[in-house]
Amino acid sequence: RFMYFVYILKTLHKSSYYKGLTNNLERRLNQHANRKVKSTKLLLPLQLIHVELCSTRTEARKLEKFFKSGYGREIIEEIANKPGWRNW
C-alpha cells in the first residue's frame, strides 16, 4: 500500500515556501537538492520544515491545496518558526 508525503520546503535566502507531495520523500528531496526540480533549482539551499503522511493521493492533494490557501500559509508561518529541522 502506498503512502503519500506532503512536505514543505523553505528557501533560506528569502522567506518563500515550496509545498509538494510525493510517494517517495527521499527521492524527491534528492531531486530538489540536485537541482532537478524546475521551480526550486534556483532557490537552493532549502530547508525541510514539515512533513505529513497521508494514506491516499486524494488526501495528500487536499492537504497540499490547504497549505497553499490563506489559512494554510498562516499555519506554515507557525511551523517555520519552530526550530530543529534539517537542511537539504
Strand content is 25-35%
The CATH homologous superfamily is termed GIY-YIG endonuclease
Which spans of ≥5 residues are poorly predicted at pLDDT below 50?
A: none
Helix-strand makeup class? alpha+beta
Mean of pLDDT? 91
Overall tally of domains: 1
How would you sum up this structure in a few lines?
The protein has 88 residues and is an alpha+beta fold. 35% of the residues lie in helices and 26% in strands.
What does this structure look like?
It is globular, with a radius of gyration of 12 Å. It has one domain (4-80): GIY-YIG endonuclease, CATH 3.40.1440.10. The protein contains three helices and three strands; from the N terminus they run ββαβαα. The chain is α+β, with helices and mostly antiparallel strands and 88 residues long. The mean pLDDT is 91.
Keywords, separated by commas or semicolons:
alpha+beta, 88 residues, single chain, GIY-YIG endonuclease, 3 helices
Structural topology:
Layout: E1 4-11, E2 17-22, H1 25-33, E3 46-54, H2 57-67, H3 70-80
Antiparallel strand pairs: 1-2, 1-3
